[in-house]
Amino acid sequence: MSRIKMTPAMTTLVADRFKALAEPARLQILTCLRDGEMTVGELVEETGLGQANVSKHLQSLFAADFVQRRKEGLYTYYALADADVFRLCDLMCGRVERGMANRRKALSTS
Amino acid sequence: MSRIKMTPAMTTLVADRFKALAEPARLQILTCLRDGEMTVGELVEETGLGQANVSKHLQSLFAADFVQRRKEGLYTYYALADADVFRLCDLMCGRVERGMANRRKALSTS
DNA sequence: CCAGTACATTCTTATGTAGTGATGCGCCAT
DNA sequence: ATGGCGCATCACTACATAAGAATGTACTGG
Q: What is the mean pLDDT of residues B100-105?
């Protein structure tokens, strides 16, 4: 946003990336992948989501370049593509926590 | 994501914040606000979006704490709440540009 | 070749939401 | 007060998509 022109085409591309992170289920999956690569089945078990559901979410995350995959026999191993997910989620988590702290403060002084 | 526990409640809160950025129209509005505070009417003119539409998007951005507002007579001035929007969008823009560069490279060597 | 397994895809339903026009509400000047 | 203006909200339509069930596809072992 600082040095990059936000052309109309760019806004939709960026919005699509944000959309990939705008779902609790996908954030849950990414959180699991924090500890290393996992198969789809392991993610299904870990998250409690349905298999088809997890698979579709992984396609979204893959299309948005947030995860990479590696096929090995019957299994497909998914892993985080890079460290940007950490940065993005940390920024958002920080905002949420600060927001909650502010609300608590506002309530206590009212 | 590194030091913060991603509880189920947290994932939905974070997802809601990302959702606020997951729309081209809202990114367009935020890009306008980069240069300083603006009234709703100015944003309508600058973005070419409908007035009701801009107003609703501003409510979303305000609910997600990305913008602050200041009423002055008939006008409502909106401004970016903090610099996080820059960081978040820059990260995403960087990813998009790197992705496009990689795709170009992949095509040229194929 | 065949059965079984892991994953992807399709179809359907339900829900959310972007966009638009109409209306409501608060503020200002006359 | 009253008319006009800026903005917010409501009602509505169109479209996207999350979730689950069923099916398809690819690989493996017997």
A: 88
| Nucleic strand D near CB of residue A29 (< 7 Å) | no
Q: Which two tokens stand for residue B92?
A: 């995403």
pLDDT of residue B4: 63
Q: Name the amino acid, one letter, at A12.
A: T
Residue B10 DSSP label:
H
Q: Which residues of B touch A95 (CB under 8 A)?
A: 17, 65, 84
CB of B68 within 7 Å of some strand D atom: no
CA–CA gap between residue B24 and residue A84 (Å, rounded): 21
A88 at the B interface (CB within 8 A)?
A: yes
In this structure, what is the dihedral angle of CA atoms B94, A81, A62, B2, given to the nearest 10 degrees? -90
Strand ranges, E, within chain B:
38-39, 67-72, 75-80
Closest by Cα among A63, A44, A64, A61 to A52? A44
Q: Is A30 on the interface with B (CB under 8 A)?
A: yes
Among the listed residues B29, B38, B62, B70, the one whose alpha carbon sits nearest the alpha carbon of residue A99: B62
What is the rounded CA–CA span in Å between residue B13 and residue B10?
Answer: 5
The overall pTM is greater than 0.90: yes
Helix, strand, or coil (residue B75): strand
Amino acid identity, residue B105?
K
Half-sphere exposure of A71 (CA within 13 A, CB side): 2
Cβ atoms of A89 and A103 closer than 8 Å:
no
- B-chain CB neighbours of A106 within 8 Å are none
